[in-house]
Amino acid sequence: MSTLITGIRELTTNTEGGPLHDAAVVLDGQHFAWVGPAQDAPAADDRIDLAGRAALPGWVDSHTHLVFAGDRTAEFEARMAGRPYRAGGIATTVAATRAASDDELSVNLARHIAEARRQGTTCLETKTGYGLSVEDELRSAKLAAAAADEVTFLGAHLVPADMDAEKYVDLVCGDMLDAVAPYVRWADVFCETGAFDRDQSDRVLRAAKAHGLGLRVHGNQLGEGAGVQLAVEHGAASVDHCTYLTDADIEALASSDTVATVLPACDLSTRQRLAPARALLDAGATVALATNANPGSSYTTSMAFCVATAVLQMGLSVAEAVHAATAGGARALRRDDVGVIRVGARADLQVLDAPSVTHLAYRPGVPLTYAVWRLGRQIKTPMFD
Ligand code: NIG
C-alpha cells in the first residue's frame, strides 16, 4: 500500500539543496519511495493533501531515561526555591523503580513513548540506570528493548548508597554488563563529580567496548570535567549535556566524530547555564538536541520545546535547531535511516499545522504537530479531525 502525500509547502529533508517547496513524498511500506516537487509526483494507492503545511523528518530523541517509576515533584519544587540539583537525587528514582512491578514500569514507559510520538518523535533512545543491581538493570534493559528504538545500558549512573564505589564499578564491568549486553546497543557512564570519576568512567567504557557495545558519555553537566575528553578519546558516538565546556573541550569535539548532544530542557530545569551550542557549531562540531526526558532533571518529552529554546536562547537558527533535533540525533545514534527524508529512508514524517518550521520558534509553546507517520504508519491523525 503506497501513499502520496502532497500539498507540502515546505519539506525539510536534511539532504543537500535545502528544503523543498511545493513538495510531495510517497510512502511505500515502511520507507519513502519517492521525494520531489509535487508537480512530478507519481500516482499511489492513496493520496493525502496537506494543504500548504510544512513537513519534516520525525524528531530523533537520542537521550531519554524512561524506564522509571515514581515522582520527583517535591525535588523540583525545592530546586525552583533555590536548592541546587545534585546527582544524588537519582537514588530516589532508583528506590521507586526497584519497588515497581514489571507491568508498572512497562506501562509507564509506553505512556511516555506514546506522549513523545504524539509530539512528533519517531525515533527514541532510552536508558537503564534506575536499577543499579544486576537484576534491576537486566529487567530495565529488557523492558526498554521491547519498547524503544535504541537502548543504552547506564548501570554507571550512580553508586548505590550501600556499595563501595570500586566494587560497584567491578560489578558494572562484570556481571551487570554480561547480563544486559544482549539487550542493548550502547553503554554510557555518568562522568561527573558525585557520580563516576575519570578512572572509573574509563574502566566502564573499556569493559563496554570489550562487550562490543557502542559508547556514550554523560559529561560536563554540572561543571567542567573529564567527560568530553574521555568520550573523544574512546571514540564515543556522543557526549551528552556539554553544559560546562572549556575551549579545549570544544576543540576536541570539533576535531572528532563524537557528537555533542545538548539538553536545554535539563539545563533550564536544573537552573544551570545553557550549553554552548552556538560555539560548538561555530567550531565545526556536530550538535544534537534531545529532551533528556526523566523524572529528575528534565521531565519533558517535547522536542519542540528544545528546538524553540535552542533558537530563542542558545543562538541557533531554526534550520540549525531542526537539523540538530533530527539529523543530529540520528548521527548521535549512528543511524542513517532516520532524521532524513530521502528514498529508502524510514518513512518517519512529522507535519506541522504551520507553513514553515520557523513557526516552531516563532510560536513557542503552541502544539504544532498536526500529523505523524512512523515506519510508514500514521500514528497521529490531523488534530482537527
Ligand atoms: O541526564 N545526569 C545524569 N542522569 C540524568 C539525571 C537523572 C535524574 O536526576 O534522575 C540526566 O540529567
UniProtKB/TrEMBL annotation:
GO terms for cellular component: cytoplasm. Its cofactor is Zn(2+); Fe(3+). One of its GO terms (molecular function) is imidazolonepropionase activity. It is an enzyme of class 3 (hydrolase). GO terms for biological process: L-histidine catabolic process to glutamate and formamide; L-histidine catabolic process to glutamate and formate. Its EC number is 3.5.2.7. Transmembrane segments: none annotated. N-formimidoyl-L-glutamate binds at Y130, N294, G296. It catalyses: 4-imidazolone-5-propanoate + H2O = N-formimidoyl-L-glutamate. Binds 1 zinc or iron ion per subunit. Keywords: Cytoplasm, Histidine metabolism, Hydrolase, Iron, Metal-binding, Zinc. The keyword Cytoplasm applies. Zn(2+) binds at H63, H65, H218, N292. Fe(3+) binds at H63, H65, H218, N292. It is found in: Cytoplasm. Catalyzes the hydrolytic cleavage of the carbon-nitrogen bond in imidazolone-5-propanoate to yield N-formimidoyl-L-glutamate. It is the third step in the universal histidine degradation pathway. Belongs to the metallo-dependent hydrolases superfamily. HutI family. This is Imidazolonepropionase. It comes from Nocardia colli. The gene is hutI.
